[in-house]
TrEMBL record:
It comes from Arthrobotrys oligospora (strain ATCC 24927 / CBS 115.81 / DSM 1491). GO terms for biological process: protein transport; vesicle organization; vesicle-mediated transport. It is found in: Cell membrane. InterPro entries: P-loop_NTPase, Small_GTP-bd, Small_GTPase. NCBIfam families: small_GTP. Keywords: Cell membrane, GTP-binding, Lipoprotein, Membrane, Nucleotide-binding, Prenylation, Protein transport, Transport. The keyword Protein transport applies. It holds the Pfam family Ras. This is GTP-binding protein of the rab/ypt.
Amino acid sequence: MAQPRASSANTRFAQFKLVLLGESAVGKSSLVLRFVKDQFDDYRESTIGAAFLTQTIALDENTTVKFEIWDTAGQERYKSLAPMYYRNANCAVVVYDITQAASLDKAKAWVKELQRQANESIVIALAGNKLDLATANPSKRAIETADAEAYAKEAGLLFLETSAKTAENVQELFTAIARKLPTDQAGPRRGAPGIRGVDMNRTPQTANLNGQGCAC
């Protein structure tokens, strides 16, 4: 493939589907809000079904990556809907709460499910969220960094501890994912028909149990 010229008209543009998975209340929606809007809300309500947002990352002057992000609900009653969102996903962020030991077990179960049923080339990142809580009070940490890192290495995952509240490692997480994706196959930037976009100044769309979009 010929190398694109360094101009905005010929910037390589790659578009990928990303899904967030994890137990309820680990901070999936907060991570997305921080990444997309650079905001944090202490009192976010639980996601119903899944929320859809988009965000782009400029990897360098020639390459832009657009993420179509599906933020799934963590409640057990929505678990059966998850395959609808991770099907054909190019990448996934599996989130756990470093102050809740059981949340890593749930994250490991999601990783196994993705490795068994999702796209075989899917890029999976493990994110240990709520780093700010453990930084402020080390006694709150329930999952040691070394243990999670060892698991991620064994499972072939990207790994970072993050804080949606302080923004620590949030941008780094999504950038690391983007760098693992096949952007060398990207074409010139152009409109992508059939993809629903979300205005970043509006509330994210949320899918209900029937998969229909609603503004919530």
